[in-house]
Structure formats: structure tokens, C-alpha cells
Amino acid sequence: MKSRSAISRPSLGVLAAAFLLAGIFLSPNPANGQEMSLIRDTETEYVIRSYLDPLLYAAGLNPHAVQLHIVNDPSINAFVSGGQHLFVHTGLITNLESANQLVGVLAHETGHIAGGHLIRTREGARAASVPMLLSMAAGLAVAVAGLPEAGMALMMSGQNFAMGSFFAFTRTQESIADQSAIRYLEATGQSGRGMLELFGRFEGQEILTYQRQQNYARSHPAPRDRIGRLQNLVEASPYADKEDSFEVEHAFQMLRAKLRGYTNRPEATLRLYPESDTSAEARYARAMAYFRQPNMAKAFEEIESLLAEDPDNPYFLEMYGQINVDMGRVAEGIGPYGRAVELMPDAPQIRAAFGSALFGTGTPEHIERARIELELALQQDRELWFAWYELAKAYNQLGMQGEAQLATAERYFTVGAYPLAVQFAYRAQQRLENGTRDWQRANDIMAVAQAQLPNNARN
Length: 459
Description:
Elements: E1 20-21, E2 24-27, E3 38-40, H1 42-58, E4 67-71, E5 78-81, E6 85-89, H2 90-95, H3 99-114, H4 117-144, H5 148-187, H6 193-202, H7 210-219, H8 223-236, H9 246-263, H10 266-272, H11 280-292, H12 296-309, H13 314-326, H14 330-343, H15 348-360, H16 364-380, H17 385-397, H18 401-414, H19 418-431, H20 437-452, H21 455-458
Parallel strand pairs: 4-6
Antiparallel strand pairs: 1-2, 2-3, 3-4, 5-6
Helix pairs in contact: 1-3, 3-5, 3-6, 4-5, 5-8, 6-8, 9-11, 10-11, 11-12, 12-13, 13-14, 13-15, 14-15, 15-16, 15-17, 16-17, 17-18, 18-19, 18-20, 19-20
């Protein structure tokens, strides 16, 4: 799902607080210097990827090169950063009404990626800064000559001109992304009505502060004009009235319910999905809400009712396993987790949770099996810090001290805690045989991590 390199190099320099909740991991931000709460959840990533990847192919992009990040944030937002990092807020998913609306957003963001708009925006900003700098120099000269008010007016006029030029540039990019989105939707045989519904839904709503409204209006096409252009494009498409399949829409509704149960306060979720609502999505949301209260008996009741209807749903099995583990019934959690892994062998997060449950039994045969499962999970996704943590514990129990130190170094390296990564990689080298693959990996971690440290910290 993600491109991999020999050395994974996240840029976040701190270790964020994180925990595991029903298969959902909270993680630090791997793509930029700002801290944000990211979640790693197999179901969320798989569902969104099922919508996103065909759009990326239609745009001539390699889906494996575009990294998807789910931001645990209630705001309705999605954006591209770093050229090929797509961030989707949980608030976007929980506030949309249909899969087609989410697909429309993903198509629009794909337009930004395919158009290289992040790079072009930087170029546009540099181009707009030239007249601003010139006017500032001229204004400063006028002010020094004894006309401060005239100098200030000259500087402000240059700044306003630069901002106007830049916002005109970004408005063009937004329009291009809209048009590209419709092309990708047509290429994949999907309707653009979701995009149209979304823009229409928020037209005129006071969802932004005045200052943000002002900047948004300058940088994005006017809502009425934008909707008018989209309306024409959508109606001209041969797929204008095509509806999503039951499977596509059901996957979205279940995902939305799960995230609502996870991100909302439990009492809010239970009001939104009362017990009188016996739909699958309502029971899924309530299972998550009860799990968070915690009211494990009620959580069991809801998830068992779902499994009775769909016994081979790996996401239900994953949650059922997690509820058992959290209740201290670790042995009972192994079966559901193991079955989920059988159903989704390429889901490293589920495999890592399975390995953790195996380790939790404390029996020697299960600890050895835990090591194998955790190693397999990390072969699939080296950025699972939680799996490195569990693997280090398994290695330690098995008397593999050098490997345990290396796994700890990997964990700190993954989250960008470079001083600790260097420290544990050095300890690993002292215990590992010189020249082996693990010894060389420890050496690589030290070299790359030290390069990320300030000069004074390297000495």
C-alpha cells in the first residue's frame, strides 16, 4: 500500500503519545513538522484506498507512491502535503452522507497531486513575492526620504497586489482540480454528483471565521460560480445518474459509523444511534461507543450480533479479539484475531494485534508464534511503531537481547525520536555479530538518525 525504502525517514522529531483501541492506532505525523493525531486503522485505510486507487490510476499516477494519512480531527477537511501525501480528516468522513461524496473529494485531491499543485503553488508564491519586495524597497526609500505615510501606502499596495496575484493563481488551481476530478470520475465510471452535493451543502453556511472566509473566498472559486461550472460538467457525463453499488455504499456507511463511535463522545454516539436502530451500522457504532465507555458486556452484545450475521468479516473479528484482550481474556482473543489474519493476510495492523495477543498469553509457544507474526507484520509495514514495541518484548523474552535493542531502535526511529534511536542502535551493535544484516541495520539507523540531529547534539 505504501512505497518502502531501506531506511524509513519520518521528519517528526518527537514521540507522540499513542495507544491501541479496537484496531485503531494513534501515530505521530510522518510527513511534515507539524504535530497532529493520525490514526492507523485497517478498515479505514482499505475502504478509502478502494475509492482512491482507481482515481490515481486514471490520473496516470502510481498508487503505491501516494501515501494516505487519516487525521483524527473533527474538521471537514482533506489536503495534499509534500506532493504525494494525502491527508483525510475523520471529520470529513463522519460528516459526509455518501460514498460518492467522499469519492468526489478524493478525485479533487487527486487532481492536485497529478497537477503538481503544491510545487506550482510555491512557484506562484515566489513569483507573487517579487513585486511585493520591490514595492517594499521603494516604499522604504520614500519613507527614509521624509514621507513615511506615502512610503507605507506604497508598501501596502505592493503587498495587496502580490496577495491578489497569488490568490488568483490558487483559484485557477482549484478550478483545474475540479475539472480533473470529473475526468477521473468519468474514467472510472462514477458520477460527479457527490462533489456537486458537497459544494451545494456548504454553500452559504457560516462554517469559517471571517478571516478564513476572506482568505478562502480569495483562493477558491466563488461557490455559486463553482457549482455552476460543476453542474455543467456533471450533467455532460454519461455517468451523471449512475449510483454506487450496495457494496460500495455499505462499506462507507459502516466506516462512517465506526469512526463516529471512535471520535464522538460515547453518549453522543448512543444518541445518534439509539438501540431502537438495529441496522448494521448502528450496532457497529454502538459497539465502539460501549467499548470506549467502557461497557464491555454491551460491546460484546453488539459485535456478537454483527458476527452472527457476517461471521467472516475481518473487521468485526478484529474488534471482537480486541474486546476479549482488553477484558483480560487474552486466550479467547487469539481465535478471532487469527481468523481475521487468515481472511486478510496482507493487513499488517491486524497481524500486529494478533502477535500482541499471542505474546499476552505468556506461554513459550505463543511467544515464539508472536515473534513470527510481528516480524511478518513489519515486513509488510515497517512504520508500525506498536509492532516494534511488541517485537522487542518478544525478543527479550526469547533471550534475543541484541535483536530486542534493535527493535527498540527501530521503534524510536519510526516516530522520529532520533537521539533514542541512536542510543538503542548503538546498544544493539554491541550485542549483535559484526557484519550481519541486523548489525548493518543498526549502523544504518545510527548514520541516518545522527544526520537528523542538530550539530551540537552529534558531538
